[in-house]
């Protein structure tokens, strides 16, 4: 039986019940931990919700830049960036320990994720932090990227991720959100999810092979709750089991 992990970035919508609505359709989630948004209270709420629904919980650190929601590369000294990432992961790690939840993975957010995907130094820095703080915890990143290559070279457990709702460029990177068509419409999302899960490919002008273990739906995509439900049902209808790696 084919299997796939379905994940979303959560803890990003204070004052709403979006997490409660989307969590039942997921097998893993990435918990915002203060870099782009979030604090101890929101981390704890999201971790508890993940535990309730038996969803694997991961830390979702970013550049420390709430003003830009972590979607801008910051010019930082490597030591300062490492310290920030450590602080964010440690927050989720501590809350998980207190709530008796196993920390499953670390997935960088936004600009940090995309920077690492294209930059060996940033990927090496992230891996060093993960190995120091939470050895053995999965690192989730862009399928076919430099991040995946760095993980493989070091023999580290990596979850290769694809995206349900984002347009790909021919080189396998994600189209910038500043460009038209970066975020897919509903019918395009279901087609892309099926191609990724069943055929290990994505349409980036031409077909691009991507071997993914996890598919992400962004919780801030318009209609995310409905999309999560329909993606879940679509995959199950195709005989695919939705489960964490």
Topology:
Layout: E1 3-10, H1 18-22, E2 28-32, H2 40-52, E3 56-60, H3 78-98, E4 103-106, H4 110-118, H5 120-133, E5 138-142, H6 146-153, E6 158-163, H7 186-199, E7 201-204, E8 206-209, E9 214-216, H8 224-237, E10 241-242
Parallel strand pairs: 1-2, 1-9, 1-10, 2-3, 3-4, 4-5, 5-6, 6-9
Antiparallel strand pairs: 7-8
Helix pairs in contact: 2-3, 3-5, 4-5, 5-6, 7-8
The helix content, as a percent range, equals: 40-55%
Can you identify the CATH superfamily?
Glycoside hydrolase/deacetylase
Task: Note the total helix count.
Answer: 8
- Name of the CATH class: Alpha Beta
Question: Which radius of gyration do the C-alpha atoms yield?
Answer: 16 Å
Order of helices and strands: EHEHEHEHHEHEHEEEHE
Q: Which of globular, elongated, flat, extended, rod-shaped describes the shape?
A: globular
What number of structural domains do the residues give?
1
Average pLDDT taken over every residue? 96
Main sheet specs:
7 strands, parallel, barrel
The share of residues in extended strands comes to 15-25%
Order the strands across the largest sheet as they lie in space. 1-2-3-4-5-6-9
Number of strands: 10
């Amino acid at each position: 039986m084919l299997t796939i992990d379905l994940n979303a970035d959560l803890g990003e919508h204070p004052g709403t019940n979006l997490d409660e609505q989307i969590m039942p359709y997921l097998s893993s989630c990435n918990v915002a931990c203060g870099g782009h948004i979030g604090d101890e209270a929101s981390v704890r709420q999201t971790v508890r919700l993940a535990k309730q629904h038996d969803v694997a919980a991961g830390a979702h650190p970013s550049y420390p830049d709430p003003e830009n929601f972590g979607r801008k590369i910051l010019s930082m000294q490597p030591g300062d960036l490492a310290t920030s990432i450590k602080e964010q992961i440690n927050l989720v790690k501590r809350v998980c320990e207190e709530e008796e939840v196993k920390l499953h993975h670390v997935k960088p957010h936004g600009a940090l994720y995309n920077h690492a995907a294209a930059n060996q130094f940033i990927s090496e820095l992230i891996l060093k932090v993960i190995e120091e703080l939470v050895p053995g915890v999965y690192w989730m990143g862009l399928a076919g990227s430099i991040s995946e290559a760095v993980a493989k070279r070091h023999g580290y457990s990596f979850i290769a991720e694809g995206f349900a709702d984002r347009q790909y460029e021919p080189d396998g990177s994600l189209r910038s959100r500043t460009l038209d068509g970066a975020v897919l419409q509903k019918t395009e999302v279901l087609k892309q999810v099926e191609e990724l899960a069943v055929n290990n490919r994505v349409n980036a002008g031409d077909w691009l092979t991507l071997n993914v273990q996890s598919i992400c739906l962004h919780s801030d995509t318009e209609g995310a709750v409905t999309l999560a439900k329909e993606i879940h049902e679509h995959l199950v209808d195709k005989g695919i089991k939705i489960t964490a790696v």
